[in-house]
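Q: I'm writing up a methods section and want to include an example of the input and output format. Could you take the sequence below and give the corresponding predicted structure tokens, formatted cleanly so I can copy it straight into the document?
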Amino acid sequence: QLQLVESGGDSVRRGGSLRLSCSVSGAKLDYLSIGWFRQAPGKEREVVSCASTLYDDKFYADPVKGRFTISRDNARSTVWMQMNNLKPEDTGVYYCAAQDGMVASFLACTKTSDFTSWGPGIQVTVSS
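A: Here is the clean output for your methods example:
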């Protein structure tokens, strides 16, 4: 059974950095596309970034471009998201999620229903 677990969440000040990890078990990461999503209080869950299994394509939401970097190591069954220059609006619960096969565009990453396995989520808090 495919399982994902996030780690690395914390409370930081504006301008700080965090690296979130998503550990994948129960399936080979090679065949999975992984997305990072976040949900702020009172808001809908939104995609932040995703890494496709196809050509290792990576996609980012506009608010995080240039600040967040997604990476993956299939041999270690782990996906990371490096978050730099954090802002208070980055506060929320962060989730990693997996879907079989590739995602070919950022639009595909926004289709949360296509991501069939989700981690429990982890809190990131950025104070001003």
